[in-house]
Design goal:
Radius of gyration: 24 Å
Number of strands: 0
Order of helices and strands: HHHHHHHHHHHHHHHHHHHH
CATH architecture of the domain at 21-138: Alpha Horseshoe
Structural class: mainly alpha
């Protein structure tokens, strides 16, 4: 009798432990998404069985977010040898992301190119390969982005899957289809509020289009869920530097980002920009040294260092940095907000900000152009087949704020248009980006 009771107790214990392992993976994911990185790390390290490898993939991403790239790389390389083909593929893609983050672009490309030849190619692999090609100035980048758009046109994408919508939005953005990108980011975030990557990149799209208020909303939505997310804090810091140059607020956000990840490259770049603005060039050089410790090939950091040489009338130093930039990417021009790539002298001369070319060939400032962020847009032309199909597929979707119908590829404040008026193949000439979808009457 005692033996039977013992066996039953052991069986119940095993069942409990199995259930706990499953619950722990979900619990760890939830902690990670909500910014409890220490709690997530503890739970992920104690997973066992079939959940262990999936947990290690999340743990490697946690290491990346907190600046522990060597630990992340060690985990990813181990998982790349996993017997589960899906785990192994995900690990190879993750390893490529780590290699890219640490400036080993050619190695990242070699990890990804064999994977994307498979049919169907993993979309995350294609997305990261497009980013790597962009880093290297490889003209094949455009082809990778267009594959996402062609899959959309061919109805090959699951538009109920938030990550797929995110990759589609990124493809539209990198092919300068900003209106479609804007609407697709919105769809991705609407479907999954915890897809922080989408909201953060959406915020940077708004910064690129001089719409800091909308960018702030994107970053704030991330911070409401994960108050510690370093990318969101860096984005908020960039917002605070845009319209009013609120240095105290920007510095506070940078401090919070660097508290989580002392090696956070976007935050270090912003801090270096602020230091350049304040003519603290030695401090800026030291900060850029921290960036190069993570990624010796960081193109924006090299451009900022070239700016310092130029400001110091150090022609030889400037030319050396320019040569390094073009050795990495012969056609480099950064796409992101660089709020302080020029020194404060230009502000004193009455400039409103630096032109966002950010190339290593010219660091001269010019008045900022705001035509890309007007609230009113033109109805002069109608949608491409991609936008037309998207709009027709979503005409019954309800707006978050009003309950009225809206369409996927309208801008946040763009004029309403219907499927009936979208039969032309001509592209729209809209240029505005806004987070608030226009509603029909």
């Amino acid at each position: 009798m005692k033996r039977a009771v013992a066996v039953a107790s052991a069986a119940l214990a095993l069942l409990f432990l199995a259930g706990t392992a499953r619950a722990d993976l979900k619990s760890a994911q939830d902690k990670f998404v909500h910014g409890d990185y220490q709690g997530a790390e503890t739970e992920l390290k104690h997973l066992s069985g079939k959940q262990a490898d999936a947990g290690k993939l999340i743990l490697a991403r946690l290491y990346m977010r907190t600046g522990r790239h060597p630990e992340a790389e060690k985990l990813a390389r181990g998982l790349a040898r996993a017997s589960d083909p899906q785990i192994a593929t995900d690990a190879h893609v993750l390893l490529a992301e780590i290699l890219r983050a640490t400036g080993r672009y050619a190695d990242a490309r070699r990890e990804l190119e064999p994977i994307v030849t498979r049919q169907p190619a993993p979309r995350r692999a294609r997305y990261v390969l497009g980013l790597v090609y962009n880093d290297l100035g490889d003209p094949r980048a455009e082809g990778e982005w267009k594959k996402f758009l062609q899959d959309f046109d061919g109805n090959k994408l699951d538009l109920n899957d938030p990550p797929t919508l995110f990759y589609l939005a990124e493809a539209a953005r990198y092919t300068a289809d900003f209106e479609f990108a804007n609407g697709t980011y919105r769809e991705a975030v609407d479907r999954d509020k915890t897809l922080h990557e989408a909201n953060i990149e959406w915020g940077y799209l708004f910064l690129d289009k001089y719409a800091p208020a909308d960018a702030e909303q994107s970053f704030d939505e991330v911070l409401k869920i994960d108050p510690r997310h370093p990318d969101a804090h860096a984005g908020m810091a960039a917002v605070k530097l845009e319209p009013s140059y609120d240095l105290a607020a920007a510095t506070a956000h940078l401090a919070r980002a660097l508290e989580v990840n002392p090696r956070h490259v976007p935050s270090l770049l912003l801090r270096a920009g602020i230091e350049i603005d304040q003519n603290q060039w030695d401090k800026a050089v030291a900060t850029l040294g921290e960036v190069f410790a993570v990624n010796p090939q960081d193109l924006e950091a090299r451009s900022l260092l070239a700016t310092i040489h130029w400001l110091r009338d150090d022609t030889a130093g400037y030319e050396a940095e320019k040569k390094k930039v073009f050795a990495i990417n012969p056609g480099y021009a950064w796409r992101r907000s660089a709020p302080a790539s020029c020194a404060s002298a230009w502000r004193r001369r009455g400039w409103t900000g630096c032109a966002r070319r950010g190339t290593a060939t010219s660091t001269t400032c010019a008045p900022r152009t705001r035509s890309t962020c007007s609230r009113t847009t033109s109805r002069a032309s109608t949608a491409s087949p991609r936008r037309r199909a998207s709009a027709c597929a979503t005409t019954t979707r309800r707006s978050r704020s009003t309950g009225a119908t809206s369409n996927l590829c309208s801008s946040r404040r763009s004029p309403t248009w219907s499927c009936a008026t979208a039969s032309s193949r001509r592209r729209r000439s809209w240029s505005s980006c806004s987070r608030t979808p226009t509603t029909t009457a």
